[in-house]
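[STRUCTURE TOKENS]
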Amino acid sequence: MAEVNGRVHREPRRVPAEMLAEERQQLHPVPQHALTATFGQSRLVGKDATIQVDAARYSVSHALIEQSVWVRFHGDDLIVTAMSKGLPVEVARHTRSTPGNPRIDDAHYPEGARGKRVPTPTTPAKAQFLALGPGAALWLQEAGESGVRRVSAKMTDAVGPAKLHGIDAVDRALGTAATVERFADGDLMAILAQVEHDDAEPTRPGEQHSLQPGTRPGQDSDPPTDPPLPVDRPDTVSSSSRNPHDGLPLGPASTSKVNGA
């Protein structure tokens, strides 16, 4: 090849090697990596092996932490591309999500890594919150994975009711909130009220509130009735003692006669 390019070519009447040296001055250098504009926008993988796209979080392989990747949407799918040995490779694919609803694939993390992550008390407020119990730790973990906002303020709001309602009740409410993924304002107090309602012992009204008469030991349910009072009425009345005016209407004359008698 060097022998052919080193002699005069019959068409241009010139040596090809000399022509190539002149052309190189007009050519642009070829990039070391492939053209990445078609791969989408670049993102830096965080320490939690996630990236943010349109304020939503998506997981990628933990091996790409603190490396650059490219993201683009194809329909409803988010495609994540990275360079591997100088070639572009698709490293993750997720369904399009919305802020506050992260797409986390457990396969992107080492085996058991997600289960071993336990919140640590890095601040006094966080330590006071985690002291409530395992329900508080579960709530903090699930809230972080769900992208909940104002976590610090909500932790403070949970510590206050513990002094009034008790630590155990608040911790149970936090565990329930984490399980059912309820992290909005007011959700904790609503769940706490339900927890206290379920724990309350049922009350029964006393006999003074009953419509039925109560009974005492040795007493019949129906109290005895008093005997009727005797009536002093003779069975027979003699004709001599009978008033002759009984049963007769009293006129004026009869009335004066009777009064005169």
